[in-house]
Design goal:
The chain is of the alpha+beta class and 310 residues long. Helix content is 27%, strand content 24%. A six-stranded antiparallel β-sheet has the order 3-4-5-6-10-11, with helices on one face. Strands 12, 13, 14 and 15 form a four-stranded parallel β-sheet that branches. Strands 8-7-9 form a three-stranded antiparallel β-sheet, with no helix packed on it.
């Protein structure tokens, strides 16, 4: 394709994912390579538009997700770096330049899918988080081209075959191979743990994990099913919200008076009955969205479960 055809195809594919990021559309072409990003602004809505680029424009990054420990990573750089934006994902640029593709992914704590384009040799890397929290698919064109997207619908008309991008791996365009970067000991170890469960330590770790995910510059909510997991997450999040930044909270949390939670399910289903009990608590505001069988099945078959269609 020439530049005009490639940009047209890029916009066409990216438009299919606009529901994922209605706040900004960014497009960049690099010869026969192209990157598009549909942004849902959570961190730094004013200046965090993507794709992001290094000061010398040699490294381009497009990211989906959040890097929770980005402040610590900036502080630990050997070579000082001045961020151009307030985006948590910009930290990927100096990390890649300092540690390379084999060194930096294990430093990240978060949920992410990344595309890194190196203009110095026209190569690119794709990286997916440890457990595959963020979606990422790869498609292969009949002409040998490689396509990547957060949803398969962006690839379906242009690729001959598809696969789910493996979690904890990166793709190297030079070798055209996947490399596993996340190698947890629990996955290969046959040693049975002997240490007894420390409930206080478990509670502290759980609370830390919830607080880490509350990092945001915009209001947010939680999906409440009424089960033990979601009820505990909602309770802990509400506790941190009530404390506010004046009581040791993170300045990157969006502080608001009450937690908003959302319930989705079939009318009178056990999940919604249980969720009603949790949403009566004083810290919670919880509208419900009912899915009716016939309409829900139709929307699911289209891959569109947005409220306007349900």
């Amino acid at each position: 394709m020439n530049d005009v055809e490639l940009r047209k195809k890029l916009v066409e594919c990216s438009r299919r994912l606009r529901h994922r990021g209605p706040d900004w559309s960014g497009y960049r072409l690099f010869g026969n390579n192209a990157i598009a990003h549909e942004r849902l602004a959570i961190i730094d809505p004013e200046s965090g538009a993507q794709p992001l680029e290094s000061a010398d424009k040699s490294i381009i990054v497009a990211a989906n997700g959040e890097i929770y420990n980005y402040k610590e990573l900036y502080a630990g750089l050997k070579h000082p770096y001045t961020p151009v934006t307030g985006s948590d994902c910009e930290v990927v640029i100096p990390l890649f330049m300092e540690h390379g593709i084999d060194g930096f992914p294990n430093l990240l704590r978060g949920m992410f899918s990344l595309i890194i384009f190196d203009t110095r040799d026209n190569s690119f890397y794709a990286v997916r988080d440890h457990m595959g929290k963020t979606p990422l698919y790869v498609g292969y064109g009949a002409d040998g081209s490689v396509w990547l997207a957060s949803e398969m619908k962006a690839l379906c008309t242009d690729c001959a075959r598809f696969e789910c991008f493996p979690p904890g791996h990166y793709y190297n365009s030079k070798t055209r191979e996947f490399v596993q970067w996340y190698k947890p000991t629990w996955k290969v170890s046959k040693v049975i743990p002997q240490e007894k469960c420390d409930l206080l330590k478990l509670r502290a770790s759980f609370e830390k994990a919830v607080k880490r995910k509350m990092m945001s510059d915009v209001p947010w909510g939680v999906l409440l099913s009424g089960g033990l997991d979601s009820s505990l997450v909602a309770s802990i999040a509400s506790r941190f919200i009530r404390r506010g930044p004046s009581q040791g909270g993170d300045d990157r949390m969006a502080w608001f008076p009450r937690l908003h939670s959302f319930c989705i399910g079939l009318e009178n289903s056990p999940d919604l009955v249980a969720a009603k009990k949790s949403r009566r608590l004083p810290w919670n505001r919880s509208p419900q969205l009912y899915i009716y069988n016939s309409r829900g099945i139709r929307c699911h078959s289209r891959g569109d479960l947005s409220p306007r269609n349900i």
